[in-house]
Design a protein that fits this description.
The structure holds 2 protein chains of 2 kinds. Chain A is mostly helical. Chain A folds into 2 domains: about 90 residues, lambda repressor-like DNA-binding domains (434 Repressor (Amino-terminal Domain), Orthogonal Bundle); about 170 residues, no CATH class. Chain A contains 15 helices and no strands. In chain B, about 45% of the residues lie in helices and about 5% in strands. In chain B, α3 crosses α10, α7 packs antiparallel against α8 and α10 crosses α14. The two termini of chain B are about 50 Å apart. The chains are: A mainly alpha, B mainly alpha.
């Protein structure tokens, strides 16, 4: 039933059959670019519009739209992106932010970005769904604390969390069909944080830099003592990063971020019993991983 | 394990450890371009004190002026009728159980009780949750563009509300709003009944939480309705005198001091209260008399059975007298012979 995957002709011939499946995203598209492109594509699919329909409603040629949807060629301008967003009835504000981030990633000049953004007046009063707003308000601080543990800077952390909530807003329909929205949101955040965090060999995140930011070392006055403490904690944090994902999350939230035990289940979207077990297992695993002989300084 | 515990105890990270300009990260460029990156920083919303005040005053007025019948109007032993649920919510709000109050108000609002929606609107506004407040405001059907109670707490005779009253909006939310403005300027002392009810309700709720710590809702215990009724009848053993004016502060007639044993004696004649009252209503010069009288009738309908205009009215039509007939009150069950004793007071408290 699926027509063969022929490369799209530059002339943009109309598909012989309605609803020809979309070509996959071009490999050269960056990660941030994909972030906003994927929800756009899935919305197009669910809307049932063909490329023809889209071209008709947006006023752009099929060629250009096809390139936009595949992430091919030059990074698309904001105007065409906005038009497609409006046709597909997607909230424009989060897409705008994500488009900007991807434009920076694609090494577009700041002036170019700014002028493109200014060309289009955004409709005001676009608000996320109430449940989304509630989730944002409840989780913002906790998510930021988690992200800051891996990304060190508060600004970077806020950026990632903003990005996460933007994506969540864009894919809200999908999110609400998941069995547990808190878990879904948490896993989304996790993915985005770890994608930006430094990596150790083996793919695990590098948590060692957080040792420079602990309250314990900040209290010490002697430089040698401080460095010794940092060194010790850096190795310990490296061990934490070796833990299985859920155990690592619970440990980071509880001990590094200082979030109280009763709040952690709601953040990670797991039941209190499971969270408690994870904490317990994590400590046991750390006990095995971290050699006791290093306690003496 | 203690080594790990030590290390974990030392793991706490500082808040905002690294100034952002020290560490050069590529992806920070994004932050400069979009000024609304921090749109999601929704940490603190400004709570509305004015709304909190209005709500407190409104709840006091409701609990003070309701009759025992209305308060104890329960469908089953533990489930109240919507109007009684609203009053119960007000009592809980006064007792500081915000969540409990919200629960009962939502219950009543679900049964299309407009005052409950209005109370929810005020409560959410007081907590700074404008979104939810707007939702409940829509439910309650307010027309006014904004509640500026908080901005002008002292002035009683602003032009703006008077103008809003010109279209004679006698919907219950408007009435309540006016009533809340009125009661704010009078000296408020909770009646014995109000105080007793609030204490009883808060105790019951506290006990409920102790018995069922998992439940977030106030679960009335068994016989809640009956006890509430008995308590309300016991405490309301004096008549109510209502003089409604809408200008300068006027002190309500003194109520008996709580603590005297005789206050708790439930004599049947006194428990009933006055059956009839004549009340004078005066409209201030700049206000539309008709709407004021309509408002009065609506407000009074909350507490009394019927308000009919007495025949006397002075030539200026700014003063009207109303003949109020009390609600029909049946004697409380199981209450016929209670010996006045010094134990009466603690036993009701202990409920």
């Amino acid at each position: 039933m699926k027509p063969p995957q022929v490369p799209e002709q530059s002339g943009g011939d109309p598909p012989s059959r309605r609803g020809r499946p979309a070509e996959p995203i071009c490999e050269t598209a960056g990660a941030a670019h994909r972030t906003w492109l994927e929800p756009l594509r899935s919305r197009l699919t669910t809307s049932g519009l063909t490329l023809d329909d889209l071209a008709l409603r947006s006023g752009y040629s099929k060629t250009r739209l096809s390139e936009l949807l595949r992430g091919k060629g030059y990074y698309p301008g904001w105007q065409i992106t906005y038009t497609v967003v409006r046709v597909l009835d997607i909230p424009a504000l989060p897409v705008r932010r994500l488009w900007t981030a991807a434009a920076v990633e694609a090494e577009k000049h700041t002036d170019w970005i700014t002028s493109r953004l200014q060309d289009v007046q955004l409709a005001t009063g676009e608000e996320p769904p109430v449940a989304h707003l509630g989730l944002t308000q409840a989780m913002w601080r906790h998510y930021t604390a988690y992200a800051a543990a891996f990304l060190q800077s508060d600004k970077r952390a806020q950026q990632v969390v903003t990005e996460t909530f933007d994506i969540l807003w864009l894919t809200w329909d999908e999110a609400t069909t998941s069995p547990d929205i808190a878990r879904h949101a948490w896993q989304l955040l996790r993915k985005r944080v770890l994608a930006r965090a430094e990596q150790r060999p083996g793919g695990r995140p590098d948590l060692r830099a957080a040792a420079f930011s602990t309250a314990a070392q900040a209290k010490l006055s002697g430089l040698a003592e401080r460095l010794a403490r940092i060194d010790r904690l850096a190795r310990f944090f490296d061990m934490i990063a070796c833990l299985p994902p859920d155990q690592m999350d619970v440990t980071v939230l509880r001990y590094l971020c200082g979030i109280r035990e009763s709040a952690v289940p709601a953040i990670v979207g797991l039941s209190p019993a499971i969270t408690h077990t994870l904490d317990h297992h994590a400590r046991w695993a750390l006990n095995g991983l971290y050699p006791d002989t290093d306690t003496r300084e | 394990m203690s080594t790990i515990d030590d290390l974990l105890a030392q793991s706490l990270l500082l808040h905002r450890p690294v100034p952002s300009d020290v560490v050069p990260y590529d992806d920070l460029a994004y932050a400069h371009l979009t000024e609304d990156v921090l749109l999601w920083d929704v940490g603190h919303e400004v709570a509305d004190d004015g709304a909190a005040q209005s709500l407190a005053v409104l709840c006091e007025a409701v609990v003070t002026h309701c009759t025992p019948d209305q308060l104890a109007d329960f469908l089953t032993d533990q489930v109240p009728q919507p109007r009684a649920a609203w009053i119960l919510g007000c009592a809980l709000q006064l007792a500081g159980a915000d969540d409990g109050a919200r629960f009962w108000w939502q219950y009543a609002a679900g049964a299309d009780d407009a005052p409950a929606s209005y109370c929810l609107y005020l409560q959410h506004l007081a907590q700074g949750d404008t979104h939810a407040a707007a939702l409940w405001q829509a439910q309650a059907g307010l027309h006014a563009p904004g509640d500026d109670d908080g901005n002008q707490p002292e002035k009683e005779s602003e032009d703006a509300p008077a103008l809003r009253m010109m279209n004679a909006d006698t919907s219950l939310p408007t009435v309540l709003r006016i009533l809340s403005r009125l009661t704010r300027t009078t000296l408020r002392r909770p009646t014995p009944m109000a105080r007793a009810v609030i204490e009883f309700v808060s105790t019951a709720v506290a006990l409920g939480y102790e018995c069922h710590p998992d439940l977030e809702l106030p679960v009335p215990g068994e016989d809640f309705a009956e006890r509430l009724e008995i308590l309300a009848y016991a405490a309301s053993g004096r008549g109510k005198h209502i003089r409604a004016t809408d200008t300068a502060a006027q002190e309500l007639p003194n109520r008996p001091v709580l603590g005297t044993i005789s206050a708790w004696v439930p004599e049947r004649a006194r428990a009933r209260g006055p059956e009839e009252l004549v009340v004078e209503v005066t409209a201030a010069g700049h206000e539309e008399p008709a709407s004021v009288y309509l408002f009065f009738r609506e407000a009074v309908a909350v507490c009394w059975g019927a308000a009919t205009a007495a025949s006397s009215a002075d030539g200026h039509e700014t003063r009207m007298a109303y003949h109020l007939k009390g609600t029909r009150r049946r004697p409380p069950s199981g209450f016929r012979t209670v010996a006045p004793s010094s134990d009466a007071s603690p036993s009701f408290r202990g409920l």
